[in-house]
Amino acid sequence: MTIDLKYETIGKRVVAFLIDNLLLLLPSVMIMRNAFDFQDPFRYIPLYNASGVLLTIIGVLYYVIAHYKYGQTIGKKITNIKVTDLSESHGITIKQAVLRSLVPIIFAVLGLITYFMIFFDLSDLMNHPVVYPILYMEDHIGIFWMLAEFITMMVTIKRRAIHDFIAGTVVVDYKDDEKNIQA
Fold first, then answer.
1. Mean pLDDT of the chain
2. Which pTM was predicted?
3. More confident residue, 100 or 110
4. Is 22 in a helix, a strand, or coil?
5. Distant-in-sequence, close-in-space partners of 30: CB < 8 Å, separation ≥ 6
6. CA triplet 79, 72, 97: central angle to 5 degrees?
7. Helix (H) and strand (E) counts for the chain?
8. Which contiguous run of DSSP H or E holds residue 13?
9. pLDDT band at residue 44 under the 50/70/90 scheme
10. Contact at 8 Å (CB) between 72 and 13?
């Protein structure tokens, strides 16, 4: 059996994810650091929520545009991995880039809905028996999604996550593209 090292990207994907999210977190931290009032910490909750929504929107756009245009984010560039079409003969389309980020886009929409409900004080709607479980479960579903993505990467030959299956993409280590190990 031949193990192709170019697909052994799990560790690099985790590092790339951390790098990218630290870069995305910096603007939010700067906003909050300059705005936070220790005398009245609850005064800036709307700003904190708006910062989170803005961070989510910027994050989704960052991932979609970077993957479409360059095949990689800054974190992936640093770790020498790249997103390609499943055929590995070309980069990904804008449709594939959006499909890769479909679940984060759904979370962004739910986050926007939650923010506007809080901002416009729609507490009756937030406590609605249908709406409340969706808003409450958002964080739990996100954790479940990340776990499912990681498990899928661990058990597939090309180390594809669920979003790779949805979009028809694969992440390759372009430094190890030509290296194979006989096992």
1. 82
2. 0.79
3. 100
4. helix
5. none
6. 145
7. 8, 4
8. helix 10-35
9. low
10. no
Q: What is the pLDDT of residues 88-97, one digit of tens each?
A: 999 999 999 9
More confident residue, 129 or 15: 15
Residue 177 to residues 4, 7, 81, 88: CA-CA distances in angstroms? 8, 9, 10, 11
Question: Strands, DSSP E only, in 56-159?
Answer: 81-85
Per-residue burial over 52-82, b = 16 or more CB atoms within 10 Å of its CB, e = otherwise: ebebbeebbebbbebbbeebbbebbbebbbb
CA angle, 101 as apex, 91 and 136 as ends, to 5°? 170
180: left (phi over 0), alpha (psi -120 to 50) or beta: beta
Helix (H) or strand (E) holding 152: helix 131-155
The token pair at 180 is 């194979």
Which phi and psi angles does 127 have, rounded to 5°?
-90, 5
Can you read off the two tokens belonging to residue 38?
């220790």
